[in-house]
């Protein structure tokens, strides 16, 4: 401001028209509190949707587990009947009923996206990322490193590893392996 003690004459100024704006000033220029409120409402809606989806998936998982429990009970009952039978075990379709129960269990798991992979006989490089090696068996029966025994299968769900397989690997005898690397 100037050092003059005189104030300007405000009556000399006239109000100008504002140019036409391509947006609604009142709607687009929110106060910081309104912007934070809008962001919180959006975040809350996203969180509620994620929670809803998680609840649906949990319900589906519980339903699949309950179905597996029914199948395990049926399998247990079939085994108990075979054990208490006066006849030779698994006569009269005993194996057939167990296979049916097994197939029902696998169908229920596959319906939920769970797959069971038996890596027996597969080369090490094919399954290395999906197994836990419990030990090695060196023998002349093995030309390369392969899965010789499966203690637990590889379990995946929707293509993601859920549980690695537990295996015993087979490999050529140590002397032959050392000669090949020499």
Put the structure in a nutshell.
By secondary structure, this protein is an alpha+beta fold.
Q: How far is the first residue's CA from the last residue's CA?
A: 92 Å
Proportion of residues in extended strands: 15-25%
The shape, in one word, is elongated
Number of strands: 6
Specify the biggest β-sheet: 3 strands, antiparallel
The Rg value, from CA coordinates, equals: 36 Å
Please count the helical segments. Answer: 5
Instruction: Please write the string of helix (H) and strand (E) elements.
Output: HHHEHEEEEEH
**Strand ordering within the main sheet:** 1-4-5
Can you describe what's shown?
This protein has 5 helices and 6 strands, in the order H-H-H-E-H-E-E-E-E-E-H. It has about 180 residues and is an alpha+beta fold. The strands form 2 sheets. Strands 1-4-5 form a 3-stranded antiparallel sheet. It has a 3-stranded mixed sheet with strand order 2-6-3, with no helix packed on it. A hairpin with a 2-residue loop joins strand 4 and strand 5. The N and C termini lie far apart (about 90 Å).
Features:
single chain; 182 residues; alpha+beta; three-stranded antiparallel β-sheet; three-stranded mixed β-sheet; 6 strands
